[in-house]
TrEMBL record:
<keyword id="KW-0808">Transferase</keyword>
<dbReference type="GO" id="GO:0004671">
    <property type="term" value="F:protein C-terminal S-isoprenylcysteine carboxyl O-methyltransferase activity"/>
</dbReference>
<keyword id="KW-0489">Methyltransferase</keyword>
<protein>
    <submittedName>
        <fullName>Isoprenylcysteine carboxyl methyltransferase</fullName>
    </submittedName>
</protein>
<dbReference type="InterPro" id="IPR007269">
    <property type="entry name" value="ICMT_MeTrfase"/>
</dbReference>
<keyword id="KW-0472">Membrane</keyword>
<feature type="transmembrane region" description="Helical">
    <location>
        <begin position="42"/>
        <end position="60"/>
    </location>
</feature>
<dbReference type="InterPro" id="IPR052527">
    <property type="entry name" value="Metal_cation-efflux_comp"/>
</dbReference>
<feature type="transmembrane region" description="Helical">
    <location>
        <begin position="122"/>
        <end position="152"/>
    </location>
</feature>
<keyword id="KW-1133">Transmembrane helix</keyword>
<dbReference type="GO" id="GO:0032259">
    <property type="term" value="P:methylation"/>
</dbReference>
<dbReference type="Pfam" id="PF04140">
    <property type="entry name" value="ICMT"/>
</dbReference>
<keyword id="KW-0812">Transmembrane</keyword>
<dbReference type="GO" id="GO:0016020">
    <property type="term" value="C:membrane"/>
</dbReference>
<feature type="transmembrane region" description="Helical">
    <location>
        <begin position="67"/>
        <end position="88"/>
    </location>
</feature>
Length: 188
């Protein structure tokens, strides 16, 4: 049981480090003339992720499950998502953020996984929220938070895309890219 808590703690620490980096990037973007869109919506994102980890810890604490071999499948998918996360975040560099920060006139990043789809980081987040609980057979957390995440992300993506279309070359760069399904069309 201790190994489960340590694994979850490592993921939480990773998220805290990401928030620190995101805040640093947000300050940099604002100094360049960037502005935040959907400030109130961001609170929902934060609450979703905090409650996700609380729910996961509670569920793994109260269930009495034994290790099952098929848990290796969501573990592998989760670990692949972590590699994708690093690729997506490093591709965006200083433009990566947990908030919607728009820098008017900036050229949007279309390298790394962004050359294949518009929102690779959101695909990764969806994968993580679905797979992390499945590793530990926390089915309720997986189901409930996958649904809540889909609702929250559907609003966030519309807000983000509208802001980027208004202030950047987003529409031109991503006009032939699908949101979540990779395409071979690249416009760098």
């Amino acid at each position: 049981m201790l190994a489960i808590y340590v694994f979850i703690l490592l993921i939480v620490v990773q998220r805290v480090v990401e928030v620190i980096i995101a805040n640093r990037n947000a300050r940099w973007m604002k100094r360049q003339g960037g502005y935040e869109v959907g400030k109130e919506h961001y609170k929902q994102i934060v609450a979703l992720h905090i409650l996700f980890f609380v729910s996961l810890i509670i569920e793994v604490s109260v269930i009495d499950r034994t290790f099952v071999f098929w848990s290796v499948v969501p573990l592998i998918v989760f670990l692949l998502a972590q590699m994708g996360r690093v690729w997506a975040l490093s591709s965006l560099g200083r433009f990566w953020n947990t908030r919607i920060i728009v820098l008017p006139g900036a050229k949007v990043v279309a390298k790394g996984p962004y050359q294949y789809l518009r929102h690779p980081n959101y695909v990764i987040v969806v994968t993580e929220i679905a797979c992390l609980p499945l590793i530990f057979q926390a089915y309720w957390t997986a189901i409930v938070f996958t649904i809540i995440n889909a609702i929250v992300l559907s609003a966030r993506i519309k807000m983000e895309e509208a802001a980027l279309e208004e202030a950047t070359n987003y529409q031109k760069v991503f006009e032939k890219h699908k949101r979540f399904i990779p395409s071979s069309t690249s416009k760098e």
